[in-house]
Design a protein that fits this description.
homotetramer; globular
């Protein structure tokens, strides 16, 4: 039985508590939050849980084996590091940390101590994303041409990170999970429309070796909510619309082929293929339930999570580069070949 | 009665012929195309029209007052220049020319001879775009924050121009028409997925003075067709979906305001406003009918068209800059302050 | 402080408990269910609540002022009657009872004892339906021509009532609330596709005085979920799509007018009007929260609920007539002029 | 080469002329219409065609082998009968005639003279409907449970027939083509909202032997256009949405099965199956092109068309019965077992 402490009971924390409480092999023993009224709410719902306004009190509690952190990004590093140093396994809400140096130090600390460090990249635990990975890995799409995602809505504005760290982090982690390659460079643009606030709109292009290209559009100031990803391949193409109540995933047998011997510039060089569309069924278990189960299993077995600290570090490095490019209005920023592969990691593998 | 000659009877030419034939004050006298079977088709439909495989024969015909050009982009300049030199008014399919030098020479030639030079930026003549301009000009949206457009589908691949010159040209001309300012710099990315073919996917960010930003996503290799533009303002926001059979235009009373005295980083600084949505009715006349009528009127009255050569030149200059940026993977390219304003134009105004 | 006991903790009961628990002036003191595992679940979530497998034990508990009943329809009458006789106020899940005789006896019992009897017609407490009523009552639609509703999906099959009593009850109660008149006759068709099961598809037409007509299509065996109501009026028309994430309600300025002096059968007698569409904003509070609040208020003040027993009786009478017509394959069944107006009620008013 | 004469050049006639003109084995020789301006329009487009205001002049013309009739329904019988008596093959716009007696007389006249009599049930010639028939005939859907169609929009009001004869005729002919059985009885409701005009809204239930049921909802006064058909089967279910720009046809692997030995009324008797969805590709040739080709072939080969007079008669008989039921507010009207099978027809088969 893994005893979990949850830091932060605002927007996401209650979902963590509920899902860990539902696990057969886990129990939530302590919850902390700065605001007393949130703790009252937690206690009304779960009278057996101890509550505290001091997260370090929670971390120090011997009745806590693992700590889940759902605070503003600015506190991720300090709290996660303290928890690791106290010998606790750690699950951190996305993004892993506010910069790559912090993320790397967390990865190294967890590695050194043999503790589980997992980042809450929730979408990786959805049936839809797992099905996409399966389709791509199985070769159904052929050569992957592009990945294009739009993730826009009105609010919620964050104050300590911009829209890239809040929304694009989802797309970057999905790409890391489903694409057969890792990006080599990034160009981004964006702007803030509210004085003194972080950028609320951003456009990020990721370059890969070869002709694969990826693009992410994120916006906190859109009148409509959109969650739509297109993945184009030489054989098939996917539309993944997360707002569809059913048939979120559609696979199109569409594409083009180029003729070999055009004799005339007017002749049609490119021919089009348009076949059936297919919406595969996939597992619809709540992602956070699957994720909580996976975290508990990794802790029990000493296994490496699918979304481990290293993956969290890779995503943070891309976001840093994107932010750097965005502030230079699209200037290309190269990503190191070993993005997300710290020395000690490579050595061990 | 204006006598019109139409060069090119492939995809777009028949629409031009039909719409000029429908005008009370115009008649189509000659049609030319390189392919004999297309001319047979034209003549079967319109037995009174003379046909020829030689466009210069059409241009030289004294029974032609105005020439409409619907050929591949590569021939726009040569044909339009010949027509102007023959004293004919000219309507050129978008884009005006293959580069800005050509476009400028056409503008100057038309100006010198007092002839009408109009570019076929069709969307400017739709009821939807005119309504958008009216809403923005009337202040309904407040300060304009962003313009975001997605224009993607499968095909038709062009061979002499890339997807920017084929599809983004529509968005750039709409922006030129509806936005209160002109772009000052551009950053673009994109790629070709078919060997030896022009870029088939592109992402273009346009920077303006202040915090207005625009973005265009165009793609010839998408499994689904999308034609959707978002325009965000401080007071209201527009969604313009050209594929909706009705209610193409939706105006949302949505937005945010920033609090003045936040006392706490946890306090909500930003408050959201979500009111009614409104889909205004607008004129649904076929755009090309309105456009043909406007061209005929300009010829009759010696007036300057809404989409004159100068506008065509401005759009070509932006596409040149976008292509330059795209090939340098996002490198910022500044646009001259007088983009689209040749010396002689400024002097005259 | 109103102390509520909730009978039934299956699909709907937990929502009742949660919403009464959230009311400032109410508390849930007892929950009963036949199944022990459901009670375990209730107690884990709400440790202060007493649980029992015996609903009559709950009804007899002096710590219960009001009873909410969320059991299969077959038990509604017996439990509600026992609760009223024990002097408790009662909220019954829809439909009020399994037949009109039972419904009438409940109405009379509550009336005699001065107790609140409310039926859980949830949609009446949604912002959308309240806005529709406001628009119709304010005359915005002009003369009402028709009400047409489709409420279909896959499952959940009921075993003691057919699809009319499960799904059409929603539409009938909405009509009762928003329309300016009451139906005078009904014709219905439908069938069961599963041997030994209740009818799973039904079509109900309601006739009113004048030319108002209403139709409801319900189906438990549809591959897609639809919740769409059209309301046509002489001045405006409404589309209410409950599955839209936003803009559930759209008001169309569309209609026709008939010319007065047609001189020729070929002449167009009817002219069409197509204006703006408008999606009004409305309150999005969870309906059951509003409803729980209303029930508590009625109990405190001795007031008559908006969805009182009489309304429940009216709806049951229509469903009985619809079922009778359905079994006679569409045979018209007249509704009494005083449908839902028992003698004693009329006398008192 | 079949020489076709077209009577009526209003809404549908120009489509007939265009599609017959496009056939390799046909030519349009004469067009007639009461209105001179329509004939001017026809002649401007097709200068080689003779025009006349007198349909009997057209029928008598020896340069006409076959007559296509696109007039108001009231004239179908007289014109078609005259054409048959003049020895011409006949294509009649839907519905075949204004009543079943007329329809039967046309069928018999054509049979007697060995002439082709075809009714323009256009949807039968669409790729979508042909694919539906193929799926049902191949057993993919299992046992067919229901057919449900909604065909509503604003206008165009007809003056000589009601909405059943104008719109439901499409659904009835599609059912006749795709369903494995024919209806045995009908119950219909509906009303007219405009004084002195035909019924503008109607609901028709068709009963079949066994548990198959069909329903059609038609309305000329709907704020939104809907063209959606659901076909439920024991194995799979179809949604056919004719307004979808692509994927008009979706096949759902969804359904239910009933358990055999329920031990408890609370136990779930019915289990649900929800698998993949599949949108098969189908031929997208314009239906009227396929239909014109089929008519020409039947004339050339003396073959019986897929939508022959007998099918037209069957549909007219159902509409007559529906209208009779509608005027009696849902009263069941039995359809004769040999609906659409005149004596002489049966004898010959």
């Amino acid at each position: 039985m893994i005893r979990v402490g949850v830091i932060g009971y605002g927007y996401w924390g209650p979902n963590l508590v509920r899902n860990f409480a539902d696990q057969a092999d886990a129990t939530v023993t302590v919850v902390s939050d700065q605001l007393a009224e949130r703790l009252t709410l937690a206690q009304r719902r779960y009278p057996a849980i101890r509550v505290t306004t001091d997260p370090f009190d929670l971390i120090a509690d011997p009745a806590v084996d693992a700590v889940a952190i759902a605070t503003p990004v600015a506190f991720h590093f300090e709290l996660a590091m303290a928890a690791l140093r106290a010998g606790k396994h750690v699950l951190v809400e996305k993004p892993l940390a506010a910069n790559s140096e912090q993320a790397l130090r967390l990865v190294e600390e967890a590695e050194r101590r043999g503790l589980v460090l997992m980042v809450d990249h929730t979408f990786i635990y959805t049936g839809a994303v797992r099905k996409i990975r399966e389709l791509i890995a199985g070769g159904a799409l052929g050569e992957i041409y592009y990945y294009d995602s739009v993730r826009i809505n009105l609010g919620l504005f964050q104050h300590d990170v911009n829209v890239v760290w809040d929304l694009a982090v989802h797309d970057l982690s999905i790409m890391d999970y489903v694409l057969p390659a890792r990006p080599v460079a990034v160009s981004a643009t964006g702007i803030s429309h509210l004085p003194g606030q972080p950028e609320n709109v951003a456009y990020i292009t990721l370059f890969f070796a070869g002709s694969l290209i990826a693009h992410v559009h994120v916006n906190w100031l859109s009148p409509v909510k959109v969650r739509r990803t297109l993945i184009g391949g030489s054989e098939k193409m996917i539309v993944y619309d997360d707002l569809e109540p059913s048939e979120k995933l559609k696979v199109y047998d569409k594409g083009v082929t180029v003729g070999q011997h055009p004799e005339d510039v007017y002749e049609l060089l490119v021919s089009y293929r348009s076949g059936d569309m297919w919406a595969p069924r996939f597992d619809t278990t709540e992602a956070l339930r699957t994720e909580a189960h996976h975290f508990v299993e990794c802790v029990e077995r000493g296994a490496r999570p699918e979304t481990d600290g290293l993956e969290g570090l890779r995503i943070v490095r891309i976001m840093e580069a994107a932010e750097q490019s965005l502030r230079a209005r699209g200037k290309l920023v190269e990503l190191p070949a070993d993005v997300g592969e710290p020395e000690m990691m490579n050595a061990e593998r």
